[in-house]
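User: Please fill in residues for this 182-position structure.
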């Protein structure tokens, strides 16, 4: 993109034309230090033995091994290595005390046509910091997703309405099964 041997345009002018700073043109990444590479090797070995170690436990382990490290450095290295510990997930399937348990009404029912039975499911998507909830409403017969939404809270407004699902499942409306836009 930038021609260093161009006699008509200096490097500074070429950088201005491309809207980049001249320091960005000259920048060369340094890479990881020898200590960080050693730490990454130690983290990798320990993570294979204890995949449930998060940043705090890994920092504690490396300090016990004689390395002077802090959580910020270990977090950066674990993120760089794409290491995600196995941890306890939120227990959204456990019923709260006092909530009514409903009987299973579909036992013995044969699903023979579209629109006869819909299913809703709420799950969570792990993110870098926390997680998001995903709700999907599907038709059992066609196995099509009628509507879906993503939210960071489990509130009633987050779930798609029955009218949205009904509009998306009707044949001939030109939309097929698409997500709700609310």
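Assistant: Residues filled in for all 182 positions:
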């Amino acid at each position: 993109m930038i021609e260093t041997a161009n006699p008509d345009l200096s490097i500074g002018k070429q950088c201005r034309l491309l809207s980049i700073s001249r320091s960005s043109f000259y920048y060369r990444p340094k890479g990881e230090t020898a200590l960080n590479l050693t730490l990454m090797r130690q983290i990798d070995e320990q993570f294979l033995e204890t995949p449930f170690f998060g940043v705090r436990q890994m920092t504690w382990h490396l300090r016990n091994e004689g390395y002077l490290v802090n959580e910020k450095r270990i977090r950066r290295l674990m993120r760089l290595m794409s290491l995600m510990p196995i941890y306890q997930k939120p227990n959204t399937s456990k019923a709260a005390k006092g909530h009514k348990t409903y009987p299973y009404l579909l036992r013995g029912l044969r699903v023979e046509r579209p629109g006869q039975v819909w299913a809703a499911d709420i799950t969570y998507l792990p993110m870098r910091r926390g997680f998001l909830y995903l709700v999907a409403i599907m038709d059992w017969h066609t196995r099509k997703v009628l509507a879906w939404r993503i939210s960071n809270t489990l509130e009633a407004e987050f779930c798609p309405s029955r009218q949205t699902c009904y509009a998306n499942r009707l044949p001939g409306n030109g939309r097929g099964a698409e997500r709700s836009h609310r």
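For context: The beta strands are 118-126, 131-139, 145-151.
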